Amino acid sequence: ILIGRMAGPLVEAFARVAAREGRRVAVHGASEGLTRTFADLQRDVADLRRAFDALHLPPRATIVSHVGNRTGFIPLFVASLAHGCAILSVDGDAPQADVLGMAATYGADLIVVAAPGGLVDGAPRVALPCGLAAVARSGRSSWRRDDDPDALVLKVTSGSTHASKVIIATEDNVFADGEP
Predict the structure, then answer these.
(1) What's the rounded Cα separation, in Å, for the pair 37 and 41?
(2) Could you tell me the pTM of the whole model?
């Protein structure tokens, strides 16, 4: 998932669409039985940002999302970008070992799960807006090093092995790869 220079414009574009579309339906979560308007999602983004502040989540933190395709993923994604965090999304049905492995490998500060179920049995949870919960982790985020402030994270999923892989690159390299 791209972050860095792309985050600000994406967050701003989301806010413009939410303001323009307001009470129109943005997403319908059939499995959850929830319908969310653009205004609901924008409010959820603000609520999640306040929750990040209350958890003392530093900017440039790493968040592993084990939310899957739930309606809460959209505001989690936007709030994470707005807070300056990297978000690594893991399939909602991924085994606990895979999620904890990704969190350990990339020094995740937080694992966000669907509440009340979800990952990390027995671990202390903090309720978040949007029907989500946070499992705090110790350890410093490794996705962005002080010696490489332009680094960003891309999530790449292998089609052949079905194993999530993450690569770290600079924004200039990503933009250069996309130019003809």
Answers:
(1) 6
(2) 0.75
